Amino acid sequence: MTGAATDPDRPGEPRIELVLRQSPIVDLDRVGVGSNQVFLATLRSRRGAVRAIYKPARGERPLWDFPEGTLHRREVASFEVDRALGWGFLPVTVLRQEAPLGSGSLQEFVEGPSQDLDLDRELLEQQLRGVAVLDVLINNADRKAAHLLIDRVGHLKGIDHGVTFNTEFKLRTVLADLGGERVPEMWLRQVSGLLSDQGRMRRLQARLRRLLAPEEVQAFLRRGRHLLADGSFPALHPWYGRPFEW
User: Fold this and answer.
1) Is the Cβ–Cβ distance between 31 and 39 less than 8 Å?
2) Which regions of 141-228 does DSSP assign to beta strands (E)?
3) What is the pLDDT of residues 42-65, one digit of tens each?
4) Dihedrals φ, ψ of 2, to 5°?
5) Helix, strand, coil: what percent of the chain each, to 5?
6) Phi, psi (5° rounding) for residue 30?
7) Is the separation of the CB atoms in 77 and 70 below 8 Å?
8) By CB neighbour count within 10 A (0-12 exposed, 13-18 middle, 19+ buried), where does 31 fall?
9) Of 62, 184, 221, 233, whose CB has the highest number of CB atoms within 10 Å?
């Protein structure tokens, strides 16, 4: 992640991904009471118990504007875009086929910071704009304040990316006040670097095509090109451009 320190106690991303994909799930606890079923999963790995957030496809409530049974795939697709950019705003998220309630997304659990951690407010402001750029690219229709977390070492993390990648403009975000503001050059430069790198883009598009409809992948590419051409955060409607905070 740009400008962020690393967590010395966190295993590397490949190791976390391997655990999420292969380690047995030994316990499930329902998280909250929401429209979709979400579970705190405990996995047994060689290094001990690992916690993750499990969202099974069968627990998704149908939406009129998203194909049924696809929200968990959009969670994974959002992570793939973040990973391709090298930003690290999203916890490691994989598509898990063998799980207690069937296929779903499995996401690294975000451990919060200790009370005595001295947060870098300037860095967090910088990272907020990075998350806002990512939301434009993935067309996030539900960026609530509760979906922005701070991890153990003070990094900003975004969660809950099930309603993303719609072909129509659906951006709704608690960061709507950034609308019209110039995107910081550091973020534009990195988006440009990804879109202009044929090898990275081929790999990313191959991953996205396994998770999304072809037209959704094409719409993602158009959003990226439009963001670079415009250079500013989209101006959103003061009411419809914000998510319901429940």
Assistant:
1) yes
2) 148-150, 156-158
3) 999 988 999 999 999 999 999 999
4) -60, 125
5) 35, 15, 45
6) -65, 135
7) no
8) middle
9) 233
